[in-house]
Specification:
Oligomer: single chain
Order of helices and strands: EHEEEEEEEEEEEEEEEEEEEEEEEEE
Number of domains: 3
Number of helices: 1
Helix content: under 10%
Radius of gyration: 22 Å
Structural class: mainly beta
Number of strands: 26
């Protein structure tokens, strides 16, 4: 299900239990998926070809000059090209020198201006400065979320990338470990129940769905997904809301023309709305701030 991968969940529990240190803070890269898989990191279809490449969304760089207390400009030999306004910034060498929650306001080829002035003794020459596109830091209460605070832009597509429906964060530009993933569209998982039959009515309280909204289903946290002779509820296959009401909806196998599912057993579980984003040739995909949210499910 959406949230932490097995890799990161296991490392987190080992850290909490005092059995191992967390993996070192390092660069992070955003990936786009047209098909999603399992928390083990398998079964995902990542976009490929057409000039696609993961985008660096976090990492660090060393300063090449000092930033005095009361000044907001960081200095670098070369500001990393992936550093963007809106990114969260912190100092690993002297944490107290950059106030918590500080972000980047602007960048040049050799500088980055912060939203708050340096504090204490200031930022030293050679300090390790961390940047993250997901800002502010994680928030919320069980589950917590992270959301991008800066624009994230991919290369221009030289061929169609297909229809993207999810994103993931990796610890490497290629291959590497999947850390967390989520669907596009910051929508909640809602419980559902459905009887057997042709075009049965799904009970989804307060769903807020509109006709043709794309939906995905899971029973990871309980329930038994229905069996279907048309349509499917396995592997996060996308189905579509039809004739939705406040507490109920029907489900179609395709959007537009009505092609209702036929169920051979009743079922229950969780359902959520998602966003599908086709990316055509010559499009430069860009995600505005606050449009990508990953939830610690």
């Amino acid at each position: 299900m959406t949230g932490l991968s097995d890799y990161l969940a296991q490392n987190t529990l080992n850290f909490v239990g005092g059995e191992a240190a967390m993996p070192a803070l390092a660069a992070r890269y955003l990936a786009l998926f047209t098909v999603v898989g399992t928390d083990a990191g398998s079964g995902f279809t990542e976009v490929s070809g057409g000039a696609y490449a993961r985008v660096q969304i976090a990492g660090n760089a060393a300063t090449n000059n000092t930033t005095a207390s009361g000044n907001a400009t960081l200095h670098f030999a070369t500001t990393p090209a992936w550093v963007q306004p809106g990114m969260l910034v912190s100092n690993s060498t002297t944490p107290s020198s950059i106030p918590s929650g500080t972000t980047i306001l602007s960048v040049t080829g050799t500088t980055a201006v912060m939203s708050a002035n340096a504090a204490g003794a200031g930022v030293g020459n050679g300090d390790t400065i961390n940047f993250s596109a997901f800002a502010p830091a994680a928030s919320g209460t069980a589950p917590s979320t992270i959301t991008n605070g800066s624009i994230i832009t991919f290369p221009q597509a030289s061929a169609s990338w297909g229809t993207v429906l999810a994103f993931g964060i990796y610890d490497a530009l290629t291959s590497g470990n999947l850390l967390i993933w989520d669907f596009l569209g910051n929508f909640n998982w809602l419980p559902f129940e459905v009887p057997t039959g042709s075009n049965p009515s799904f009970s989804v309280k307060g769903n807020g769905f509109a006709s043709n909204d794309p939906l995905v289903f899971t029973n990871e946290y309980g329930g038994t997904l229905p069996s279907a002779s048309t349509g499917t509820f396995t592997g996060y296959n996308v189905l579509f809301a039809a004739s939705p009401a406040t507490d109920t909806t029907n489900v179609d196998t395709v959007s537009g023309p009505t092609t209702p599912v036929v169920l051979t057993s009743s079922g229950s579980g969780m359902v959520r709305k998602i966003v599908q984003q086709p990316i055509a040739i010559n499009v430069t995909p860009s995600f505005a701030a606050s449009t990508l949210t990953a939830t610690l499910a």
